[in-house]
Amino acid sequence: MSHDIDSQHLTMEDIPPETLSEILSSLDAKSLLVCYSVCRLWNELVHSSSDLQCKIELWADGMEPEYSLPASETLEALISSRRAWKNLEWTSEVTLEMESLWISRAYELVGGLFLQQQQRAPKLLSVSFSRGRAPRITTTPSSAEALEGFHDLAIDPTQDLIIWFSWISGEYASLECRTISTGEDHPLADESVLTFELDRNPLGSFTVQIADDVVAIFFRGTPSTAHLFNWKTGVEIAEFSDTEFREEFRTDFHLLSPRSYLFAHGSDAGPGQIDIFTFEADDYNDPILVGTLELPKLLPGIGLTNVMIHTGPFCAKPIAGSPFSKSNEHRIYMFMLCYDLQHWCRLFVPFRYLHKFVLDADRIGEQTRVATLAWDEWGFHNSRLLPGSNHQWNRQVHGERVALPCDDPTYVHVLDFGVRPQRKENETPEEESNSPLAALSADLFVGSDFFTLDGVFQDSILTALPYRSLRRKLDRSHDMFLMDQDRILAMNTSPFSSSPDKVTVYTF
């Protein structure tokens, strides 16, 4: 009886610390942050545990752990990486030689792997990057038969997957699903070759994209067309040919997730819009429109004449050999918008806002009314509009960062939309850093700013998505930057570049 009476007067302080730590370890990062302010004991327990601190800091940076390292080592690597990117302070700098991207047939940079199908050799160049090691470079000769009709490739190294797009002539094209490691048919593909009708020369603007078990190929032009496949089962999921948008550059397409995509388009009249669709991946079906986001209103006679979508790659699994990988849910979408063939700007929208229309449709059901929002209803809090230029090269975006050239080609410009304004480490560059701060300019934008494009928009546009702007001086001039989670590849895109070309790899 006395035991029952005593148990009624137990407090949280009576729970053994090891038991309380085990309870806290079952919580997610957001709940752990709440526990900070419950009492001093809980605060001390959270702060003294590497496991709990690692969970919180990974969540704060939008990272997912690889789980092969102890939490203390993962936490140390994360904080080191965070500080390096915050100061653009790379830990190593290596110069490589490869064929100029103007000359090569195709290239990709995903998950620490750079692939280039060369034109002049011809060889498949593979550069494998890993933390703390020199790049591993290999080349594989490509036979004339293998390159016959070859136009592009897409990869997901986390699935050992490469998909080749080929079209020779006539009415049919193919997507071939192979392994990166051996070049053989991918063992998870029921049908290694996916064929579809294509009655026009694909030379021009098209993209091949992979999101987990889905591969999509999109052709801009006359008209815009797309084909979606489940590459594992070989099932064609969807196909559309949009006769309404015949102008070559006024549409673009991008997979948002393995079950949704974006379709952005403009016209001579009207502000243009971003449509969000969902689809099923088990059988052929008609995609469902679940949301429409209108772009800013234009002055009379002004049209949206070009739109391009850029974002980081979707990886189905964590990156091998890395203690953490950027979550697919923490990506920024960059919409390159051109008005009247000459006025460019960049619109940045986070994945999580775009994807909420997909989640809402799943929660409410297909019978819900499509959410159509005017710019004034969504643009202010959920986007940032900045000056832009015609810069079409792929893989300049990864996660929540964007690497851009500057007017002065001896500088690199990084925009980071992964800032969390309430966290103190997002204030200024670290004073104790070894970075030559005189060569670095850093600005944090957490309030709203007006953007004006003379002769284009009806009014000045106010947007408030937080971001950090970093500019760092380099030792040599570059006019293009590719990036992934741990590095920036700096190069030049002039069609008169020598072959091989010099590429500088800055690793963080």
From TrEMBL:
Superkingdom field: Eukaryota
PROSITE patterns (alphabetical): FBOX
Domain F-box: 9-62
InterPro entries the record matches: F-box-like_dom_sf, F-box_dom
Classification via CDD domains: F-box_SF
SUPFAM superfamilies: F-box domain (SSF81383)
Matching Pfam families: F-box-like
Lineage, opening ranks: Eukaryota, Fungi, Dikarya, Basidiomycota, Agaricomycotina
Originating species: Favolaschia claudopus
Protein name: F-box domain-containing protein
